[in-house]
Amino acid sequence: MKCPFCNAEDTHVIDSRDSEDGHKIRRRRRCHVCDKRFTTYETVELRLPQVVKHDGTRTEFDRNKLLTGFKRALHKRPVPTSYVDAAIDRIVQKLLAMGEREVTSRSIGESVMEELYKLDKVAYIRFASVYKSFQGVDDFRDVIKEVQKPSSPHNSSEKNPESANE
Ligand SMILES: [Zn+2]
Prior knowledge:
This protein is of the alpha+beta class. The protein has 2 domains: 11-43; 50-163, no CATH class. Helices cover 40% and strands 19% of the residues. The strands form 2 sheets. The protein has a 3-stranded antiparallel β-sheet, with no helix packed on it. Strands 5-4-6 form a 3-stranded mixed β-sheet. Helix 3 runs antiparallel to helix 4 (121-131). The chain is elongated and about 75 Å long. The chain binds zinc ion (ZN). Zinc ion binds next to loops.
């Protein structure tokens, strides 16, 4: 790191220590040229990516929007709020772990579909019908066939009893 006083290229770390909360490293540095000392802090950068929408515009990731989507799909379905929170947490964690600066709204939609599939099949179909812009009965038939497939890879985590009727 450059010296902030004389702009020399070469500064040395003379001391490193964790901050009290353990989320920062504090380093004391010394400049070889002017012999001045200064402190730098190193932190982990965990930022949610920007969401790239279908029309190419960018927007901040919004957890509330995600929650609204889940609520709409799960309207009057017997799914505890804590399950929904956990599902949203998993999506957020996944986004953070990607470390990307941008993510498409489409890819977030896919994650929502995955979580809804595990939570509630009716909600999954509801969300899919809007998200994939179902045009007619055939689209519904296909997705219902998909959730009824016994060999579905998602079935291992399925805990709710099958109830296709509202
Ligand atoms: Zn210097």
